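User: Hey, quick favor. My workstation is busy. Could you predict this chain's structure for me?
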Amino acid sequence: MPDEEWPDGPVVVGVGWSFSEQLILTAAGLATALGQHLVCAFVDPASYLTEWEPEAQRTALSLDPIINEEAEYPSGQVQRNLESILGQPGETWSFRLLNGDVPKALNRLAESTDASLLVVGADRPGHVARLDRFLEGSVSGSLIRSQRCPVLVVPDN
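Assistant: No problem, here it is.
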């Protein structure tokens, strides 16, 4: 790849309800170094029903017609936590709320924004997290196998 330039596009970082400051600072530092906008994306787990719709007909909304005000709390809290690290969203970074299965939603965002890099945290340790990965699969593993742009997995410290 020496002849090719680094792809032009935002750096996308996938964040969960709880995330490490190291993940955000790593993604923000890379976005700055590459001269790109940082897109912080939270996938609403309450919207998993969107994945049941055929891909060609899928919208960004959940199929559940009832507005779940409780589901708005996590994304608002996530954005406040991001703002405590990065400051107010604007020219350098933005926040996106996504719906559906986490790896599929992050894949769609990376493709639709022509992301130059996708950054995610490493799999959580522990028995419950291991059971989740067994049942649902690893987010980072799924992204590494399916994403067209480079994927960086940042370990927790």
